[in-house]
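new request in #modeling-help
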Amino acid sequence: MASPDTMAGESEIVSTRKDQHLDVVAKKDVAFGGLALGFDRFTLEYDALPEIDLDEVDLGTTLLGKKLAAPLVIGAMTGGSPRAGRVNERLARVAAKVGVGLALGSQRAMIVDPSLASTFDVKVHAPDIPLVFGNVGAVQLNYGVDVEAVREAIARVSADALNVHLNPLQEAVQPEGDTRFGSLAPKIDQLARAIGVPVVVKECGAGLSRRTLRKLAPLAIAGVEVAGVGGTSWSKVESHRAPEGSAQQTIGMRLGGHGVPTVDATVLARDAMRERVVIASGGVRTGMDVAIALALGADAVALAAPLLIAAEESEAKAEAFLRTLVQELRVILFTCGLRNLVELSRATVIAASDDPLVTAREAHVAGRIQRGW
Ligand SMILES: Cc1cc2nc3c(=O)[nH]c(=O)nc-3n(C[C@H](O)[C@H](O)[C@H](O)COP(=O)(O)O)c2cc1C
């Protein structure tokens, strides 16, 4: 157990780091920039004679037992500093108004320093948020955070579910990173069995591979959020924070595309998780991205960086961003002749390109993707 002095120092480091993350994501290029393996390779089968009314389209869904107006979650981002608290407050009100889920950033800061708990307490600002995820880094289970500490942290903010994040790439590139990732699977399993809310394991932008999913499948988790390659790259974020000329700066940039693309991770996760929850995330930006992720098997979709950038400007911007996304999704279902998300999950996904990479992807989607029109 660390002394109160060391803990106060640690809490200051965590708070400062959280604010640096907000700055880097808002101001620097941290978007994945490798091969285009993203959603833009795909579209959905258009139907000029949909035989339904736009008003008939129902985007409602139930995720982890909670009713959402649309299958969307504001992805895990922040908390732990006054600025992060303001972002969470705005996002909380938006999530409640639009009727979507909200995930908190890592609650480590408030575990270390309970006086920071109010910066995570989103239900105070918006008691009607339909679904709130708490958040803890899996690796923290190797650094003295135990089930009791996590239980207290999620009870303090009345979270309905818990995200446990995996981020070995980020920690390895972060100058002060926690890199002891040994023997974590049994600890995640133990946490999931004891914690009393559904646990969704997530990556943070490098995705979940078949190899990872094979290790996650036997655990007592409610599902996964893939957070694949294609959106915010935490390798790049940490590279921007690393000292000029340092090895971390170089490595972080070079490994900015290391991991599993979001589309692939979504399809693999659906296979591995069977009836359990799969949330697609990592570079989801448009209504068509959302629709394709859902058609490929996701139960819901999470977006992080675009909502941070909008919320730092204003609550109204964040709300407009989300409402546009929901309306776009509605228009897509209408123009594909799909009444609801069950029909979308059976829709035909068209690979809009002849690129051989698409052909390779076709193989593992086992017939769900049709090549060309
Ligand atoms: C500013 C910021 C802070 C983040 N902090 C966390 C975190 O504390 N815990 C976590 O699980 N994921 C965190 N993430 C990762 C996101 O939840 C998400 O997995 C990743 O950014 C990819 O989604 P995107 O491309 O929509 O941004 C953070 C993302 C951003 C942009």
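bot summary: The chain has a mean pLDDT of 90.
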